[in-house]
């Protein structure tokens, strides 16, 4: 936090872990608001994840179709996965691409970090561009079921426009790829 934001900042007073699940944790903290009053904040603790934007030499992209239980439907998504404790995000991206799709890549570039649920979770997603793709064998986790397919980026953007792709990481990834492929944007340099 910098001094310019001090008048907006909430200060931690005390906290409790109210749910400790295998994947997610729920935290309840008491905080002091900028005006000095006290309130509670409940939020999900998440270990972070990676998103891979796999691009073939012809510009088409690799996507997945996967059922997501909380919303009871199949979603079209870019490959992604949870970062394991002490795992380097790029190593995670390489592992997830191979496990979920069977593909590996010759070239990797960091694109950006996004925070997809800032009001109720500390989750961050590290987005990577993967090029020079080589097919291999999928190594899905036990209980993981998904289909992999290839599509032109224009089709992906149309699916976003028409509301057939609503997954936030995939929407943002498609916009980034559209800007990168048009030459308007370059992948970002990670900030520390």
How would the blueprint of this fold be written?
Blueprint: E1 11-20, E2 25-32, E3 38-45, E4 49-54, E5 61-68, E6 73-77, E7 80-82, H1 89-101, E8 104-114, E9 125-134, E10 146-151, H2 153-161, H3 168-182
Parallel strand pairs: 4-9
Antiparallel strand pairs: 1-2, 2-3, 4-7, 5-6, 5-10, 8-9
Helix pairs in contact: 2-3
Protein name: GDP-mannose pyrophosphatase
Pfam families: NUDIX
Catalytic activity: GDP-alpha-D-mannose + H2O = alpha-D-mannose 1-phosphate + GMP + 2 H(+)
Describe this structure in words.
The structure is a single chain. With 192 residues, the chain is an alpha+beta fold. The chain folds into 2 domains: 3-45, no CATH class; 49-182, Alpha-Beta Complex (Nucleoside Triphosphate Pyrophosphohydrolase). Helix content is 19%, strand content 39%. It is built from 3 helices and 10 strands. The protein has helices spanning 89-101, 153-161, 168-182; strands spanning 11-20, 25-32, 38-45, 49-54, 61-68, 73-77, 80-82, 104-114, 125-134, 146-151. A 4-stranded mixed β-sheet has the order 7-4-9-8, with helices on both faces. The chain has a 3-stranded antiparallel β-sheet with strand order 1-2-3, with no helix packed on it. A 3-stranded antiparallel β-sheet has the order 6-5-10. Helix 2 (153-161) packs across helix 3 (168-182). The longest helix has 15 residues, at 168-182. The radius of gyration is 19 Å and the shape is globular. 22% of the residues are buried.
């Amino acid at each position: 936090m910098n001094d310019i934001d001090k008048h907006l900042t909430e200060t931690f007073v005390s906290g409790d872990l109210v749910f400790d699940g295998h994947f997610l944790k729920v935290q309840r903290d008491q905080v002091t608001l900028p005006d000095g009053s006290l309130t509670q904040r409940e939020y999900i603790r998440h270990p972070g994840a990676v998103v891979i934007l796999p691009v073939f030499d012809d510009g088409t992209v690799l996507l997945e179709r996967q059922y997501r239980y909380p919303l009871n439907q199949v979603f079209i998504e870019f490959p992604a996965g949870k970062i394991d404790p002490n795992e380097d995000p790029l190593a995670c991206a390489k592992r997830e691409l191979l496990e979920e799709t069977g593909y590996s890549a010759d070239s990797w570039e960091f694109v950006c970090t996004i925070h997809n649920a800032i009001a109720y979770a500390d989750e961050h997603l590290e987005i990577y561009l993967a090029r020079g793709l080589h097919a291999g064998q999928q190594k899905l986790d036990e209980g993981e079921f998904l289909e992999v397919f290839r599509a032109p980026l224009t089709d992906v953007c149309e699916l976003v426009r028409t509301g057939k792709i609503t997954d936030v990481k995939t929407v943002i990834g498609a916009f980034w790829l559209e800007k990168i492929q048009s030459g308007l944007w370059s992948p970002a340099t990670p900030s520390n």
